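Continuing the batch. This is chain 6 of the set; chains 1 through 5 are on the previous pages. Same settings as before, nothing changed between runs. Recording input and output for traceability.
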Amino acid sequence: MVLRWVGTGLLKAERQFRRVKGHAAMPQLVAALESASLSDDKAVA
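Output for chain 6:
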């Protein structure tokens, strides 16, 4: 029953969500952050 209420709430809230500008470039951002994080980890170790 709880899942039904949560699902209904999400469907109603979905109408108010807006698309993030630049959402298509998110995989590139994640890759850049991961490579920067890896290079920082190597410098610390």
